[in-house]
Design brief:
The complex is a heterodimer of chains A (610) and B (274).
Chain A: H1 2-13, H2 22-27, H3 32-62, H4 88-124, H5 132-150, H6 176-205, H7 218-249, H8 276-293, H9 296-310, H10 317-331, H11 346-374, H12 383-406, H13 408-414, H14 418-448, H15 454-480, H16 500-530, H17 586-609
Helix pairs in contact in A: 3-4, 3-5, 3-16, 4-5, 4-6, 4-7, 4-14, 5-6, 6-7, 7-8, 7-9, 7-10, 9-11, 9-12, 9-14, 10-11, 11-12, 12-14, 12-15, 14-15, 15-16
Chain B: H1 13-44, H2 61-90, E1 100-107, E2 110-115, E3 149-152, E4 154-158, E5 162-169, E6 174-178, E7 183-187, E8 193-198, E9 203-209, E10 222-227, H3 229-254, H4 258-266
Parallel strand pairs in B: 1-5, 4-10
Antiparallel strand pairs in B: 1-2, 2-3, 5-8, 6-7, 6-9, 9-10
Helix pairs in contact in B: 1-2
Classes of the chains: A mainly alpha (610), B alpha+beta (274).
């Protein structure tokens, strides 16, 4: 019986070898690992597009009206002026698309699409997702949306230019590019919902025998809670986008008040009577939880990486789980803190300030538990560990700067300034992206079957870490100085002129930061083909994915799995080694110890002879 | 770092800056505390030899409780402390009686300011009259509106007086940002929002738009001129005079009562601040 089972398993494992076409395997694949890789490649491609946009923005801010070096003359005349400098119109499109791409086409696909897809089945010991076909559709909606969004640049009037927040009426009276932006976001949201439903079902139903919910690694917990936020929040965004689409395209008035004086568009077909603030409520009802969609999986990955490389159990595992649940719940009732100055009733400002201050508590709990994990550990500073350590420190800065904004009177001054820009980048780059770097290196051996180059990995980390801080920390100072976000030329204002040297410094740092990412891509691409072959469990980690071959075949595992304990039994006195995989049965553990003791006895016995 | 803040000349700005400073010191203290521990751990607890074992320990409930409770108390304190200042700034029932009321209308990419004129009463406005030539939608039939006067990108107020601004927008959302007054309030089309401030110092200050309103967003700059009361009264007379001259110029040619308008002009202009 057992032989038959393992034979079947083996045949399944050999999956694509017999008869799976190239298209089914590499393009319209239903294998969660291939879909994870597709998400990864597409998102890294968009990372470079969004990064390039950021550099154009930075160039203009540091050297307003000066030609873009090297490529300024080559860009189309709708983007740059005759000298090759960014025009104000293109600048506004760039800042809109930079934000939209980085959030919806880079961070969410990397954290949720890539790590969610790759890690969930492997970490819970399943052979694939619950709905593999749905999973494939979820991926393919994403590049489709990307093409639709980017095609805005080819339209008359350019791409969307109302900021990534797309506040109407500006976004409701805009050109075709804005409509394409709406359609693209709708599709990406749809992709998220399909993924979210899939993750929830998979985690609830397909865990390996013996794995209780509280035996799951933090990555799985985090993605699970994230998937719940996605399925609750994204439909609200979809509803808001549908209304904005109709306002834009069919002249309805969900968000458009009467008697607007608009030169660019005939408003006679618009009845009016809409409320611009309604969009902000609906948008932030999704988009504030979206901030947690972008940070919770990162926290999960970092928890796993910190525990593995500290060789120590995760401190306060259950507290960490409850903190994630608390963040998810509170995250749904804090959206109004984006609207303190919006004209919303100031009484609501008070309530949202209280809920916002309270949500800082679970974040603090997580930070202290990470510190606790490292306390009396035996840390190994591999590339994933360095990135995870940076994550914690950067997240602390991002969290603390959030307290300024949570305090409504201080927010009066810093709202819509570069302080916010600095804060969001400390959370999304210093937080999410460093967690992504940690995860990419951590699972690279499992994903590709080869090791990345540790020296290049560390080089990439140090250059990124330093230039990241040099780029984004001074933005807090710009914000304190009052520099508004999204302005094309700060030198128009006398009170901002003294900050121009700082703007130049930030731009130079940003250029270094941008180009350093080629090291990452080179390292991963080169190692993918030429790296040293990876062992099954190169990090001596406990979780299930490391029991599968590297890379895991179709169907993932070649052994029968049974889970006996939690994921963080590092340096356990019960174990001979300094780790104790979740799958090792008590009998096997006993046998290991006996063998170990026999070996010790033999050595002792052999000693006097020598 | 807080030295970079623009000079504060607003009455309630002191409260805002005080809170800013308080949060600054609290967060810097937490940051230093956490990072000193962090760096100490990184140095102290690195693996030095192969085969070394970490301390097998899963956590401590008393510690979990205390590092939940302490931040909770601290953040709630900050919330309630902040709320007092917030209510003073924004709650309409806490707004002091205004000495001067000005209507402000945002339009891509400029600011319109409207003063109530010698009678101290704004003429009726209705959104249906709004247009590029009549940004506030002033009802042409209302006599109270005849002496109202408007300026573009320049706001003049008296020093040490409470100024109440009725704020709105005629196209997209703008944000009325006065860095030195610690004032920021979105101007939302179809909605009027009140915001007040009181400048303690004369001088010229900048007004910016802080909400993306199109590609010319960065050009939406106005100047706030804070004058002494007497200089402000002089400015009011001047404005009122030129407004009236502009109004009566076509009429003066044909109408016999040109003298009457002269009289009007020389009559003591009752500034709404009195």
């Amino acid at each position: 019986m057992e032989a038959v089972l393992s034979q079947e398993k083996h045949a399944h494992a050999g999956g694509h070898a017999h008869g799976e076409s190239f298209i089914r395997h590499y393009i319209f694949s239903t294998d969660h690992k291939m879909i994870a890789k597709q998400f990864m490649f597409t998102a890294i491609f968009f990372l470079f597009i969004g990064g390039a946009f950021a550099l154009f923005i930075r160039w203009q801010l540091a050297y307003p009206g000066q030609p873009i070096p090297l490529i300024g003359q080559l860009l189309p005349s709708t983007w740059v002026n005759a000298q090759g400098a960014v025009t104000a119109e293109w600048y506004t499109q760039l800042l809109t698309m930079h934000g939209t791409i980085m959030i919806f086409a880079v961070i969410i696909p990397l954290l949720v699409g890539t790590f969610g897809n790759f890690a969930i089945p492997l970490m819970i010991g399943a052979d694939d997702m619950a709905f593999p076909f749905l999973n494939m559709v979820s991926f393919w909606l994403f590049p489709l949306a990307g093409v639709i969004m980017m095609s805005g640049f080819l339209m008359e009037g350019g791409s969307a230019a109302a900021g990534w927040t797309g506040y109407p009426p500006l976004s409701a009276i805009a050109s075709t590019g804005q409509t394409l932006w709406i359609v693209a976001l709708f599709l990406i949201g749809f992709s998220s919902i399909l993924g979210g439903v899939n993750y929830i079902t998979t985690i609830l139903n397909m865990r390996a025998p013996g794995m209780k919910m509280f035996d799951m690694p933090m990555t799985v917990w985090a993605v699970f809670i994230t998937a719940i936020i996605i399925t609750i929040g994204t439909p609200v965004l979809a509803a808001a986008l549908s209304m904005l689409f109709m306002d834009n395209f069919l002249s309805t008035s969900f968000f458009v008040p009467a008697h607007l004086t608009v030169a660019t568009r005939d408003m006679s077909r618009t009845a009016g009577g809409g409320q611009p603030l309604l969009w902000q409520h609906l948008f932030w009802f999704y988009s504030h939880p979206a901030v947690y969609i972008m940070i919770l999986p990162g926290m999960g990955v970092v928890s796993d990486v910190l525990s593995t490389f500290s060789r120590k159990p995760l401190y306060g595992y259950k507290a960490m789980v409850y903190a994630i649940i608390a963040i998810a719940f509170l995250g749904i009732i804090v959206w109004g803190h984006h609207m303190f100055q919006s004209g919303m009733n100031p009484l609501l400002g008070t309530t949202f300030m209280v809920s916002t201050m309270v949500i800082a508590v679970p974040s603090a709990i997580k930070t202290f538990n990470w510190l606790g994990t490292m306390w009396r550990g035996k840390m190994e500073f591999t590339t994933p560990m360095l990135n995870a350590v940076a994550f914690v420190s950067m997240f602390v800065i991002g969290g603390l700067s959030g307290i300024f904004m949570a305090s409504t009177p201080v927010d009066v001054f810093i709202h819509d300034t570069y302080f916010i820009v600095g804060h969001i980048h400390y959370v999304l780059f210093g937080g999410s992206l460093f967690a992504i770097f940690a995860g990419l290196h951590y699972w690279f051996p499992k994903m590709s079957g080869r090791m990345y180059d540790e020296r290049l990995g560390k080089l990439h980390f140090w250059i990124t870490f330093i230039s990241f801080n040099a780029t984004f920390f001074p933005m807090h100072i710009l914000g304190i100085g009052g520099m508004m976000r999204r302005i094309y030329d700060p030198t128009v204002y006398d009170f901002l002129k003294p900050f121009q040297p700082m703007n130049e410094f930030i731009t130079i740092s940003a250029i270094v930061l941008g180009f350093a990412q080629f090291i990452l891509v080179y390292n991963l691409a080169h190692s993918w083909f030429y790296g040293k072959k990876a062992k099954r469990n190169p990090w001596r980690a406990n979780t299930l994915e490391w029991q599968a071959p590297s890379p895991p075949p179709h169907g993932n595992f070649d052994t029968e799995l049974r889970v006996y304990r939690g994921p963080y039994e590092y340096s356990s006195p019960e174990s001979v080694q300094d780790y104790l995989p979740q799958t090792v049965s008590p009998e096997e553990l006993l046998a290991q110890r006996q063998r170990h003791e026999e070996r010790l006895a033999q050595q002792e016995h052999a000693q006097p002879v020598a | 770092m807080l030295d970079w803040l623009p000079e504060n000349v607003s009455i309630f700005g002191e409260g805002v800056d005080h809170l800013f400073t308080l949060i600054y010191y609290i967060t810097v203290a937490i940051f230093i505390l956490v990072n000193v521990i962090y760096v100490a751990f990184i140095i102290r607890y690195r693996r030095k030899r192969k085969g070394e074992r970490a301390y097998h320990y899963h956590g401590n409930n008393l510690l979990e409780f205390s590092w939940t409770a302490l931040p909770f108390v601290l953040f709630l304190f900050l919330a309630f402390y902040s709320d007092g200042i917030w209510e003073d700034i924004k709650y309409s029932d806490r707004t002091p009686n205004p000495d001067l009321v000005v209507e402000v209308m945002g339009q891509t990419y400029m600011w319109h300011f409207r003063y109530p004129g010698s009678d101290g009463i704004f003429g009726r406005r209705d959104a249906k009259f709004m247009g590029t030539t009549n940004p506030f939608g002033i009802d042409p039939d209302d006599p109270n509106g005849k002496d109202d006067y408007t300026t573009i990108n320049s706001m003049t107020i008296p020093v040490n007086k409470t100024v109440l601004v009725h704020l709105s927008s005629m196209d997209v959302i703008h944000s009325f940002f006065l860095p030195n007054m610690r004032v920021k309030q979105d101007a939302v089309p179809g909605q009027w929002v009140d915001v007040w401030f009181n400048s303690m110092k004369t001088g010229k200050y900048e007004i910016a738009c802080a909400e993306l309103c199109g590609s010319g967003h960065y050009l939406m700059r106005a100047v706030l001129d804070v004058k002494s009361q007497s200089a402000f009264d002089g400015w009011i007379d001047e404005q009122y005079g030129s407004q009236l001259a502009a109004l009566s110029a076509p009429a003066a040619a044909s109408a016999p009562n040109a003298d009457a308008s002269q009289n009007d002009q020389s009559a003591p202009a009752v500034s709404p601040t009195h």
